[in-house]
Write a structure and sequence with these properties.
46% helix; globular; 6 strands; alpha+beta; Nuclear Transport Factor 2, Chain: A
Length: 322
Amino acid sequence: MTLSPSLAPDALDQYRRELTGYCYRMLGSGFEADDAVQETLLRAWKAAEGFEGRSSVRSWLYRIATNVCLDMLRGRERRARPMELGSSSPPDESHLGPMVAERNWVSPIADARVLPQDGDPAEIAASRETIRLAFVTALQHLPAKQRAVLILAEVLRWQATEVAELLDTTVAAVNSALQRARATLAAVHAEERSRPVDADQRELLARYVDAFERYDVSTLVTLLHDDAVQSMPPYAMWIRGATDIGTWLLGPGIGCRGSRLLPTAANGCPAFGQYRVDPDGGHAPWSLQVLEVSGDRISGFHAFLDSEHLFPAFGLPAHLPA
């Protein structure tokens, strides 16, 4: 049997970006999303001869990806962020608290791996909102099938009939699941919507980089909202309040003095690879900073310390020369 050109590996790979976005929202981990998409494409390639064309190739791939994600989520605890794991820490607390296993916390993903490269700016902005850390974390509160229903219907704009066909259920069941999912999401997700990066935000980010690299903490604090939060996954520790964040940076966080920042983009937000001073010369990877901006100031400062895996995933250099 001769395979249709649309089912060749290279043809299937054209769906990788959107499938990665779907699997990331389902799983809350960029690394697991990659694994899920790889498994999806492998299963599709192996089953290509049996594809009868009763649905589009795209719908068929989403069916496989959904089943892969449901298998991966079975019997697992939901992923969270440090702010959900306990109360905030005092700013002079030198102990970072327990480390949380990677499988338990929401990890970041590069915009370039999940967002369309071109198209309607409004649609791209809407897609950006649905990969933000707070939104992806909120999705983890939903049972797995409700999560799939909401992502397919609300994020990807599938019709209820299409979702029902993909999940082998009825339209009534889809609408009921969607209603429950919306109610749950509304109760746990109340974050202000972001806006596209404009001249004011670019200026804010430039001031942030300048203040951080000079380690001018007094100036840096003025760029934060009064109730801004700082977190450092995989540690459970987190801090609330611009003043307390400043105190921490000049206390337990003083090792960040002398850092350099390289810009990137993660979860629809501005992000930076942070490199700390390397005693052997130059600067070594330390954390991936994801900033949440609300209005004219920074509301969230999240430093993901898994630089060994995150920096290659974001295409960031393994070392900076002196």
